[in-house]
Design a protein that fits this description.
Belongs to the carbon-nitrogen hydrolase superfamily. NIT1/NIT2 family. This protein is of the alpha/beta class and 255 residues long. Helix 7 links the parallel strand 8 and strand 9. It is built from 8 helices and 14 strands.
Amino acid sequence: MKVALLQLHPLDDADSADPGWLAPIARNLGNLGVDVLVLPELILPGYNRPDAHRDLSQSLSGRWVQQISSIARDANLAITFGWAERAGDQVYNAASFIGADGAIRGHYRKIQLFGPMERQSFQHGSDDPPVFEYRGHRIGMLVCYDIEFPEHARSLARHGAEILVVPTANPVGYDHVQEYLIPARASENAVNIIYANYIGPDGDMAFGGGSVIVGPDGRPLASAGRSPAILIADLPKRTDFADDTLSTQLGELRA
C-alpha cells in the first residue's frame, strides 16, 4: 500500500473552515498512485483555536465530511483527517478515514485529551479505537497523545491492525515522541505507523514538525524535518519474523 502524509503550517481562518484547498494536493497524490493520505489533528477548524472548536464544530453528516468525501472520490484515494465533531451537546476531538469511494470507513474520538485547552474544548471519547479493512489491509486509528499510551496501540494490534493512522498536533519540545515513541510503538506491535504533524507557530504555541512514516521494524520509511512536507512511502508487510514475534508477545500477555 502506498501512503502519504501532509505536514503543513497551521491554516489561516479561511482555509481551516473550508477544506477546498486540499483538492489539488489530493488529486496530484492520487495520480501518483497513493492509496491513503493522512492529515494532522484538528485540521478543521484548526488545533489552537478553542474559540472555534464549539462554534464551528460539525456533525458526521455535515459539510466538512461531505467535502472531504467528494475530494477523496475525485482523487481516488482515502483521506484521514482530524476535526471537531459535534454530537448533540458534546464536541469531540475526532478523526475520520474516508475511502476513495467517499464512504466513511473508520471514525474515532480521541480518548487521551492533552492539556487544559483540549479538556475544556472537548469531551473524552469513550469508544475503543476502530480497526477496519481497506484495500486488503487492516487499519487502526488513534489521535496524537493516544499513541503515547502503549495499551492503545497494543489493543489495535491484537485486533489485527497492521497500519495505524495517527493525525497529530505535537508541539515544540516533544520531539521524543517522533524520535523514540513512534518507532517503539511500531516495533513492539509489528505495525506501520503514519504520524502526521504540523510545523510552525499557531497563536501562542508552536509545532515541531518531524512527521514520520515508520515500518513494522521501527525504522523510518520517510521523515520530515522542520518545514512543510509531503511524505510518500510504500508500506512493507509484516515479515514472518515480526508476525511470530507479535504472536508470542500477545500469547504471553494473555497467559
